[in-house]
Task: inverse folding
């Protein structure tokens, strides 16, 4: 039987599961996140097929219940997002693909928040994702030994950057941060410590091999910020810094070992600086980034009601099209959805982070709880978003939703802050 036919049978099987058991479909979706960029059948990403069947299965299931009390806040947030997305599509006029993708993410987000009703279910979702990503990274090591690394690397002017089976190295770096955060939690609660430690080291190595400077810096800064806030009440700063140092040392040591074995220069993060920031010149890189940010601010001023989903934010640098995004998710939201709509969207994104930080400060969030580690990964992605504008990655939506859902599960209904 041909591989294509086998793949078709697998897709059919998981689609049927997603249709009749949308909650199990979410677990399947979680498993596919680390390689959603390359798992394609007949030109369509399999993750989209799974998503369609999850939505269809949930719609059929939801029609049988009229209980809206437990999902009211999720409905409100989802409606806000849907309205803003429709507005951006109408304003942009030519962003159908983006609109469909965002609408799908919103629906999956709502279904996730509604169907995950217990800590056990949430941990199952996260463990599935983390295990899948670790397995993908192990497979990548096999490709290093016996395969063609062109499939898993981006070749750029600054050298080779590991991207795994995602669309680019920045997404891949974010996946490693999410996985490390999840595994750190389970390591701290003494669950399968050996496997967790091995997974943390492996993901640390692949994070460094991605050579995503924003990703690496974001992870370090996020741990420092969250640990500092936590130490005000719990005194865990020294421990957290020790763990961070161990992760970075193990990751960089492993990355150097692999790079030396396969003659790969880690040019973006300090090894054999030839064409990285130092060689190009910090002033040049800074001026380019500041130019893009300035253009983003100008775009907001030019159209305060927003450009919508289109590429009219494009400008040029030296007569070469430079960008169609602000490379900053805050500026991008304000430029796409308008000042008011973008502000509402940003408030939605930052709300769970604010709640988690508030609880850390008031000692109602334990320093090594699941929310604590999800907060680290979410803040990391927010920092990455300051240098990129891609908040439409489905992995980001679901990890952000995991933090929010876990905060809800930690909050007794009688003392709810929502």
Result:
């Amino acid at each position: 039987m041909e591989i294509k036919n086998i793949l078709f049978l697998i897709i059919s099987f998981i689609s049927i599961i997603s249709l009749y058991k949308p909650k199990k479909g979410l677990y399947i979706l979680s498993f596919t996140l680390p390689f959603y960029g390359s798992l394609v059948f007949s030109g369509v990403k399999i993750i989209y097929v799974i998503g369609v069947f999850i939505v269809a299965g949930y719609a059929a299931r939801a029609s049988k219940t009229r209980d809206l009390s437990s999902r009211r806040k999720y409905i409100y947030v989802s409606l806000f997002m849907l309205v803003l997305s429709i507005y951006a599509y109408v304003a942009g006029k030519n962003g159908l693909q983006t609109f469909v993708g965002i609408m799908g993410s919103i629906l999956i987000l709502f279904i996730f928040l509604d169907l995950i009703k217990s800590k056990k279910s949430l941990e199952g979702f996260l463990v599935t994702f983390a295990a899948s990503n670790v397995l993908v990274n192990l497979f990548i090591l096999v490709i290093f030994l016996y395969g063609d690394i062109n499939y898993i690397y981006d070749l750029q002017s600054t050298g080779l950057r590991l991207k795994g089976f995602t669309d680019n190295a920045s997404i891949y770096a974010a996946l490693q941060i999410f996985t490390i955060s999840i595994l750190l939690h389970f390591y701290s609660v003494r669950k399968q410590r050996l496997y967790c430690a091995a997974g943390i080291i492996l993901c640390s190595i692949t994070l460094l091999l991605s050579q995503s400077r924003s990703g690496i810096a974001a992870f370090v800064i996020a741990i420092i910020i969250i640990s500092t806030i936590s130490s005000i009440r719990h005194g865990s700063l020294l421990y957290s810094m020790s763990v961070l140092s161990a992760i970075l040392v193990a990751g960089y040591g492993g990355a150097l070992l692999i790079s030396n074995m396969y003659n790969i220069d880690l040019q973006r993060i300090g090894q054999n600086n030839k064409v990285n920031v130092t060689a190009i010149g910090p002033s040049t890189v800074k001026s380019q980034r500041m130019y893009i940010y300035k253009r983003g601010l100008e775009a907001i001023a030019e159209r305060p009601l927003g450009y919508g989903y289109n590429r009219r934010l494009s400008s040029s640098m030296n007569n070469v099209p430079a960008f169609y995004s602000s490379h900053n998710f805050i500026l991008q939201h304000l430029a796409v959805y308008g000042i008011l709509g973008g502000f509402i969207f940003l408030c939605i994104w930052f709300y769970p982070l604010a709640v988690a930080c508030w609880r850390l400060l008031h000692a109602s969030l334990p320093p090594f709880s699941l929310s604590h580690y999800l907060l680290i990964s979410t803040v990391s992605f927010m920092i990455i978003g300051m240098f990129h504008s891609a908040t439409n990655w489905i992995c980001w939506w679901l990890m952000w939703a995991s933090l929010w859902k876990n905060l809800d599960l930690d909050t007794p209904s009688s003392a709810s802050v929502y």
Observations:
- DSSP finds 15 helices and six strands in the chain.
- The chain has two domains: 1-66, 67-412.
- Confidence is low (pLDDT under 50) at residues 271-285, 314-323, 413-418.
